[in-house]
Design goal:
The structure is a single chain. It contains 19 helices and 12 strands. The chain is α/β, with parallel strands linked by helices and about 375 residues long.
Length: about 375
Amino acid sequence: MTENEHSPDIEKWLTLIRADGVGPTTFARLLKHFGSLDAALEASVAELAKVKGIGTRTAERIKTSLGAFDVRKELALAEKHGVYLIHAADKRYPPPLRAIYDPPPVLYVKGTLQRSDSLAVAIVGSRRCSTYGAEQAGRFAHLLASAGFTIVSGMARGIDTAAHRGALTAKGRTIAVQGCGLANIFPAENAELFKKITENGACISELPLSYEPLSENFPSRNRIIAGLCMAVLVVEASERSGALITAQAALDNNREVMAVPGKIDSPLSIGSHRLIKQGARLVDSIEDIMETLGRIGDGLKDHALSAAASAESKIDMPLFDAVRLNLSAEERSVYDTLDGEPRHVDEIIAQTTLAAGAVNSALVSLRLKGLIRQLPGSLFTRKQK
């Protein structure tokens, strides 16, 4: 079997998972109860009704709908789009995802999945993000990918897109989990990004190829994002952001949850700050992420910090300038005051003629953007490019 071939017996897996009334949890119960796919597919209504959580009505729905889904047509469409299907018993199936409560029995894959993808961090957040949020998502993704982490997100507008692009600029691996079938690309403007992700990782989905990106698909999609990772980093989340669903799925499956702080008066920070209040790790550096990952992070810390420092010093000038160009007037004034020599906060206040509160706020923001360093004794210095 080659890397991009369908799993053996994929037709049987598709037939059962596409039966009316069968979702990931019911699929697992059927397989456990009957011991094999063949036995489950051949079971009578009475036998199906004896399975935990399946009554007579659901058993009848399952039995009468078996075979209604055109498996041959689906596989032909997969071939047309360069997609292959793997099931949960396939060794290519991501081990972390297999361990969640309700893993998808079948995954559609365009690209490649590797064992190294188990070392993964999800970066998620609002579609309508701020410039600051996009910068932070891209920056953390770039630095983590440079250290060998796979970046997972949902390819949505905003934070997701910035995360994928950040990983790609580091020539790292990234995985996009779509809330629609892989015959569709959502959003449409990410067609080129979709292509680049499949060349440097994979785009995956549990949904039939032609499924549209409907709102009801995304909560289930978010559990896959969380399931693929060791930890989830939330960068900007409004009060009802889907990123909060991903964070909850991470908690439900014993993953770590982290959040990047934002402006206290921004609606885009409400969800992120709530997560921090509820115990999510406040993150403003790669070191924070390594500490959050516990023993695994301890083992990788020196390598990750070294790789991140190297990557940050080699960030392409256009990317660096793009960050600078998005500074507020106060941030630019403070940044232009700094150079390679440490300066005390009082000296910065005097030189900028800004109020102390404005300077302190700008210093925090510039530090989070990775443009300056804070030294002991309230000293600050510009990071060298």
